[in-house]
Prior knowledge:
Structural class: mainly alpha
Number of domains: 1
Oligomer: single chain
CATH topology: Proton glutamate symport protein
Distance between the termini: 30 Å
Amino acid sequence: MKLQLHWQIIIGLVLGLGYGILAAVQGWGPFTADWIAPFGKIFLNLLKLIAVPLVLFSLITGVASLSDLKKLSRIGGKTISVYILTTAIAVTIGLVAVNVLQPGDTVPDKIKQTLEETYQSAASSKAGAAESVKDRGPLQPIVDMVPSNFFNSASSNRNMLQIVFVAIFIGIGLIQIPKDKAKPILTVFEGMNDVIIKLVDVIMLMAPIGVFALIADTIQSVAGDNINNVINLLGSLGFYMLAVISGLFIHMIVTYSTIIKVFTPMSLKHFYKGISPAQLLAFSTSSSGATLPVTMERCEDELGVSEEVSSFVLPLGATINMDGTALYQAVAAVFIAQTLGMDLGLGAQLTIVFTAVLASIGTAAVPGAGIIMLVIILEAIGVPSAGIALILGVDRILDMMRTVTNVTGDASIAVMVASTEGQLSSLRSNSR
């Protein structure tokens, strides 16, 4: 009997964790880098390879299949509104968690100094990248969303928002021309979309090996050749990590579960079981963009979301719905302020909510992009951006966890929109 995909991924994840710890203890860093890590990079590159064509073709077919602009605006308005609302809730939960736990007060001065010295150069580079973003005009994000050259946009997964714009634009064009002329073009896009979905199945055959290699490489990169590095880091930043993880957990269990319970006929067990392979993949890759092909497949095949809704809501969510990232940014900003002995009042924390919600929209769905947005938030509330050096050591670990939240949020809202639009398969929807 063949193991289900999520069990295969779990086994790969556990084995990768065990190997990573063993490699750190035994000093197998060079071997891991040369012979293990490449398999993870190949797997991740394959997922990234199909991300752009998947978003393009699925979103074009999804928009065109809506048949009229009123339906598009209704679904689009509903989707974006819920995305923004859940992001605001996530930031609020993060602020409550960090204010209750006060993790910044638990870091010894000696550890603060060590962390600052260790990650100062990395912090400076992130601050430099954020500076160029901060200096842009208020409407620059909208300008950046509209590409001048489609092929330049398609050349990088960081330009996913531009791909979304182009796909919606083409889809609107197909709606407005006669159906007999639109049909052959739409047939081509549908055929390409089917090809991409099949390629997802092929790539996922490599998932257990890819996850093993990614987790092993992550553990190795954090630990180096001394497992004590991990122990010391986790010990000094334990309360900070607890604040982030508890916030992410509460948001998933409360916010997303409420959405599923209130707005859909689906049981929570069915939802979480159906989306679990995508969650595990999100954890190992730290990229909601790379996970998107699997998220779409699971939502359609296991959760009963129509292709029409899935192909519109999920690519959009992978681009603008970054609840986990926004929550993490809120916790990190307050933690850094606490560590530096700065007291943030209500006004500053409201600024965090507003800035984090806006910053999450258009944040690249790739590992580490959230840290650049964090610098912008720190500058907005008057906290020295160099403070990110305090958290960079555990950022990769937390990045994995917040990506799980991002992907779960995309899936839950896709199920909600499908249910409210009458496009959730009754055959796959379990009753409460």
